[in-house]
Known about the structure:
Elements: H1 5-10, H2 22-32, H3 46-74, H4 80-92, H5 96-105, H6 110-117, H7 124-132, H8 140-147, H9 154-162, H10 167-181, H11 188-197, H12 203-210, H13 216-226, H14 232-240, H15 246-253, H16 259-264, H17 268-286
Helix pairs in contact: 3-4, 3-5, 4-6, 6-8, 7-9, 8-10, 9-10, 10-11, 10-12, 11-12, 12-14, 14-17, 15-17
Amino acid sequence: xRLSYAAANFGDGRLPVTFLGVGDLGRFIREKGLSxxxxxxxxxxxxxxxxxxxxxxxxxxxxxxxxxxVALRASFQKxxxxxxxxxxxxxxxxxxxxxxxxxxxxxHQRAVMRALAKHPQLSEKTQLQIAMDGDLNQxxxxxxxxxxxxxxxxxxxxxxxxxxxxARIWQGVARNAAFQARRLAAPMEFTTLxxxxxxxxxxxxxxxxxxxxxxxELLRGLYQRNxxxxxPERLEKIAENPNTPDDVLEKMxxxxxxGVQRLVGMTFPEQARxxxxxxxxQSSQAAPAPSL
Length: 292
């Protein structure tokens, strides 16, 4: 096993830290003049100490995964105990490097890859590595795990969408993108993705994406284009979006129910009134008090 295999393939682009034995470390200290005059104390820059500690951590990470992989391969029969230990390690780790390394070592262990796909600390590099793998992206469970993973970046979301036409996976990505777009200081890439997905012919995908739209004009367009043909769920999402313009909410709040709308229990007028009331309350609270 080559040391730091994953550092070159899954790392952040920097060369992996060299692992030194005790003798090598002593020679390094003498050659670099890192000891004090009496030779009893080390004078080492802080970044060198951090690099050495990180190098040791990386080594321990790799050894831990290597031992589990060897144990899994040692038995011709499925080794449930070792598999459970491996899955427990996936669940417990919060180190993106460890997840990188496990993704490279357990590539053919589907149970492990499915657990990795859902991990909230998965980095973009590992997300894309899984989504682009020709075998893994044929596994519906793996793509579903990625689709619902809140660590997913917008680039990874688009990569997942490009690998499947499965409606459940697309809807999962749309809900995830909308959730990310609603966060404070969220990157605009999530909002742009929601805008794109709101044009989907799949009603579930389009409906899920509406919550992440921040453009008032786009929300107005979605409603005005042909509101009589929009699904109840989609109208509800437009009504509850805090970015929907006041004039659109006013129209929605006074909309008369048709017989079909009553039948399906459409409630978007009520939701529009609630959104308007909340907005007006927030505006009144933010307004400065009149001077005496």
